[in-house]
Design a protein that fits this description.
Helix content is 44%, strand content 19%. By secondary structure, it is an alpha+beta fold. The strands form 8 sheets. It has a 4-stranded antiparallel β-sheet, with no helix packed on it. A 4-stranded antiparallel β-sheet has the order 4-5-6-7, with no helix packed on it. The protein has a 4-stranded antiparallel β-sheet with strand order 8-9-10-11, with no helix packed on it.
């Protein structure tokens, strides 16, 4: 770059500063005088000279200079020609052959460029203009000529600056003569003179005057704009002036129409935002120009590159000024504001909440009919994004504003636009139109609704335009009406919540808050308002052409485009779920015909739990009809297997299992088991106890061994650890989930506390007891057990204290739930003991006759507020079911076998019998559905489930561990 022609430290007075750099040749200076004398000569009507002076011609190209640069050697060349010379590896001046100290070219030689322009103008015959043409005030024209001469010919910077200020004053005074003045000022030499002032002057007043004059001229004469954009350094200087605080320069920059990419490369974004943010009242022309330039930047960038720019806009106060632009006087300003705000919303959804508070809709609706199709779509897209708020009441309010404001009918305007919109844009227009129509109670017929629905379904089925299909699908899903604070659709999360996966919904909301840095708690959704809107919109969608949407969705879920498959599947799950709430008008059958087999396929084969949950949501609607149950009959086993897998997480899965159980008279059709594996542990004696925890299976043996197993391939058990720290039989294994510990009780009078790791277990604590341990149960601070051979129950605190409760009873089994200890006794009695107060309640009194055969309670389990008690057959039933809340008898299982252990799942009750058999009973119907036979006649000593209740574990007296699975 050429250094400024003078600086503040120069000893010369400013008035003496020369405009020509020291390396400008003398012959060029002489040409300057020649050209301006030529001007006067031509005004006398003399003949024009056409041959260019040799100093105006590049020695390399032999053409007149376009962008002259003067090297340090004093030689001048065309910029492109000398740059090509250097790029070839040359480092000398082509004429003098002197070495160049730098290969970086200086700035344009504006002195020479101005002289060439002047010569070209005066050499043209068209430039000759008789004095008689001038009919205006001769004094003003004379003053203007003098000022122009000072600007273009003076070698003293101050004189040239004075010329600029004088020209500015004359421009302001010109009225009828403005076109003549403009014509005189638009000449290339004058424009070059202004540009030279921009490059050399340091006077803010002069710079502002030059910029304003160039702006005025450029707005009236495209030739001025072309002259300024022809040389890059001219634009760069204007940009630098703006960065230095000359805000008027941004208006001139806007006239030059630089590309958005070049504006970013010149690092203008932060300066544009700074200007917009600094004016609270909206500012004037410079602020409008900044807004238009910012719009140019945002529109020119691809999605992946605009993120940082949008973040800068949102984080600054500029967004408020941009919103003021929505009501600007010029159509161009309103459209630019929409473009910027739309990109902000799409990249940072939470800013829509700021925009909605202050947005003016009426000015946008007023210009809707006069803008281009592309700008019209931006307005519609912007409005559709404004109704994705996290409260239904706010969305309805905004829809009313859109519908009621504006000079023309918004609904009529939109439907006319929809009829001519492109296929990729039509779904968004249709979605907004449909929402506006649904503000009032749906009428039997509505031209707007019919047009919108026809468009959405047509686009959804348009396989030739995947973009239109995706857009239509996403629009349909957004009609559900639930959004997060950032405008993200909550449809999927809410559907999973309805399917019983509440954690997924909460997790989504937390992630959305973290992703968008939302620190304030989000407002609670008004479920009643949202429910009414959802029912209204779902009814309209499914009722259109008697469920035509389901045919389109059935095609969409079979699409080769994964994204379209996914969205169509969610819409299908949502609408089919809504059919279970809406009055049945026969559409449920149409939906079943279109979608049932797809729901079954996903439910049977998909490894994604959430996808299966969404399928379950649809299936739950279809099982309400006899036809639906009949269609599901051939897939019953697969569906039941999936429901069992989901029941731990989903209450809906549990309820569906109940429905299937009630609908099938023969429960054996639903529940049957197959043997998976057998493990021979007879070398360690009897298998006395089993427990499952953290994906591992623990078994306790009569020789004091504890074994740790994991499930392997083909559902086989694999032994990963074996420890024998107890010296006698391990009678009990208890799991305390709150502390991630496993407790073992033994006849060696110790309780050991085990920590579970990935590799297995290790003992971290040993509690010495005075008695042998049987039926150990644990809580956070205590352990309860039945002492060997004695009466009562020992309650041992981990701090060392212990006491004996229920001393007058001979306990056989225990269950501990929420501080209440249930005790099954030798005399067939059952007690509930409050461990806090010591209160004892009698659930079953038992037998007091000494001669009557003893019928002890061998097994107890509490499940969902019910107490299951099992033992030998007594009164025709060996298992009775009691309510833990009022001790009332709920029912019984009419088995005649001697029950020694039992386990209760969400659907079934397993009874381990002395004879070596396991009876399986339906928990709801209290009917026996199956009997499992072990491989021998050994006694069943213990039963347990894995975490999903899919695998039944059985321990026997002959040292075998058997596993059974629901088939």
């Amino acid at each position: 770059m050429v250094q400024p022609m003078w600086d503040k430290g120069d000893e010369l007075e400013k008035s003496e500063v020369k405009r020509f750099p020291s390396f400008i040749p003398e012959n060029i200076k002489k040409v300057s005088s020649f050209c301006w004398s030529l001007t006067n000569f031509m005004e006398d009507g003399s003949k024009v000279l056409h041959a260019p002076p040799k100093d105006f011609v590049c020695p390399i190209t032999t053409h007149i200079f376009h962008d002259p640069v003067t090297l340090e050697t004093g030689q001048t060349y065309e910029r492109k020609a000398i740059q090509e010379w250097i790029d070839r590896g040359n480092s000398t001046c082509p004429i003098t052959r002197q070495d160049l100290h730098t290969t970086h070219l200086p700035r344009t030689n504006y002195v020479l460029k101005r002289l060439i322009a002047s010569w070209q103008e005066q050499s043209s015959p068209a430039a000759v203009s008789p004095k008689s043409v001038i009919t205006t005030d001769g004094t003003m024209i004379t003053e203007l000529r003098v000022a122009i001469t000072e600007l273009c010919t003076s070698e003293i910077l101050r004189e040239a600056e004075a010329g600029v200020l004088r020209i500015e004053g004359l421009w302001k005074e010109a009225k009828r003569e403005v076109e003549i003045v403009r014509s005189m000022l638009s000449k290339p030499p004058v424009i070059n003179g202004f540009v030279e002032i921009l490059l050399t002057s340091l006077d803010t007043q002069v710079l502002r005057a030059a910029v304003v004059l160039l702006t005025e001229l450029g707005s009236r004469d495209q030739g001025v704009v072309q002259a300024l954009t022809r040389v890059d350094s001219d634009v760069e200087r204007i940009v630098q002036l703006f960065k230095n605080g000359l805000v008027e320069a941004v208006v001139l920059l806007h006239l030059l129409e630089p590309s958005g990419l070049s504006l970013v490369e010149m690092d203008l974004v932060v300066y544009l935002l700074g200007l917009l943010a600094s004016r609270e009242d909206g500012g004037g022309v410079p602020e409008t120009a900044a807004l238009l330039l910012l719009s140019r930047i945002v529109r020119s960038y691809a999605d992946e590159n605009v993120v940082e720019i949008v973040r800068s806009i949102v984080s600054s106060r500029a967004i408020e000024r941009i919103m003021i632009g929505l009501g600007g006087e010029e159509v161009e300003e309103r459209v630019a504001a929409v473009s910027i705000l739309l990109r902000c919303i799409l990249e940072d959804g939470k800013c829509r909440n700021i925009i909605v508070e202050k947005v003016e809709i009426a000015p946008l609706l007023e210009v809707f009919l006069v803008v281009s199709d592309g700008e019209r779509f931006e307005i519609v897209h912007f409005l559709s994004e404004l109704v994705k708020l996290n409260r239904r009441s706010l969305n309805d309010k905004m829809l009313h504003v859109i519908k009621d404001e504006g000079t023309f009918s918004t609904m009529h305007t939109l439907v006319l636009y929809l009829q001519n919109a492109s296929v990729d844009e039509a779904p968004i227009v249709a979605g907004l139109l449909l929402q506006l129509d649904l503000l009032d109670e749906p009428r039997k017929m509505s031209i707007y609704r019919e047009e919108a629905m026809d468009t959405l379904i047509s686009c959804l089925r348009n396989s030739e335009s995947p973009i239109a299909q995706i857009c239509a699908a996403e629009t349909l899903l957004s009609l559900q009406g639930s959004f997060s604070y950032s405008g993200k659709s909550l449809s999927r999360a809410l559907l999973l919540k309805r399917a019983g996966f509440d954690r997924t919904y909460k997790s989504f909301m937390r992630k959305d808050q973290r992703r968008h840095n939302i620190s304030a708690p989000q407002p609670q959704h008004n479920m009643e308002d949202e429910g009414e809107w959802e029912k209204k919109v779902a009814f309209v969608v499914v009722s259109h052409e008697f469920g035509l949407v389901f045919e389109a969705l059935a095609e969409g879920v079979k699409s080769s485009f994964k994204e379209l498959q996914s969205v169509c599947f969610m819409i299908a799950a949502w609408l089919v779920y809504m059919l279970s709430i809406l009055p049945d008008t026969g559409i449920r059958g149409a939906a079943r015909v279109c979608l049932l087999h797809h729901f079954i396929s996903i439910f049977k084969s998909d490894n994604n739990t959430e996808e299966r949950a969404l399928s379950m949501l649809g299936l739950n609607t279809f099982i309400r009809d006899p036809e639906g149950l009949q269609d599901l009959a051939g897939h019953m086993k697969d569906i039941l297997k999936g429901l069992r897998e989901l029941k731990k997480s989903s209450a809906m899965a549990f309820e569906m299992l109940k429905v299937f159980s009630k609908e099938h008279e023969n429960s054996a059709d639903l529940w049957n088991h197959k043997e998976l594996s057998q493990q021979d542990c007879s070398i360690n004696g009897e298998v006395l106890t089993l427990a499952c925890f953290k994906g591992k299976i623990f078994s306790g043996h009569s020789d004091g061994t504890i074994k740790v197993w994991i499930g392997g391939e083909e559902e086989q058990l694999h032994l990963i650890q074996q420890v024998q720290e107890h010296t006698k039989a391990v009678t009990s294994l208890a799991v305390l989930h709150s502390s991630d510990k496993v407790y073992s009780g033994s006849l060696d009078r110790t309780v050991r506390v085990w920590t579970v790791t990935e590799e297995g277990i290790y003992c971290e604590q040993v509690e010495e007891m005075k008695d042998q341990i049987n039926n150990l149960v644990v809580a956070n601070s205590i352990a309860c057990y039945i002492p060997q051979g004695g009466g009562g129950i020992k309650v041992h605190s981990w701090n060392g204290a212990s006491k004996l409760v229920n001393q007058h009873k001979y306990a056989k089994c225990l269950a501990l739930v929420q501080g209440r200890l249930y005790c099954g006794c030798q005399d067939n009695s059952i007690q509930e003991i409050d461990l806090v107060t010591g209160t004892v309640g009698n659930i079953q009194t038992g037998s007091k006759k000494l001669l009557v055969k003893s019928n002890p309670i061998h097994a107890l389990q509490v499940h969902e507020g019910l107490l299951y008690a099992g033992g030998p057959s007594f009164d025709g039933a060996n298992v009775k079911i009691w309510s833990t809340s009022n001790y009332g008898l709920i029912g019984s299982l009419q088995s005649t076998l001697d029950v020694r252990t039992l386990a209760v799942s969400s659907e079934l009750v397993y009874l381990g019998c002395k004879s070596g058999s396991i009876e399986v009973w339906c928990k709801n119907k209290h009917t026996r559905v199956e009997t499992l036979h072990t491989s021998s006649t050994a006694k069943i000593l213990c039963i347990a489930f894995d975490a999903n209740q899919d695998i039944l574990l059985v321990g026997t007296s002959d040292g075998t561990i058997q596993t059974w699975g629901l088939n």
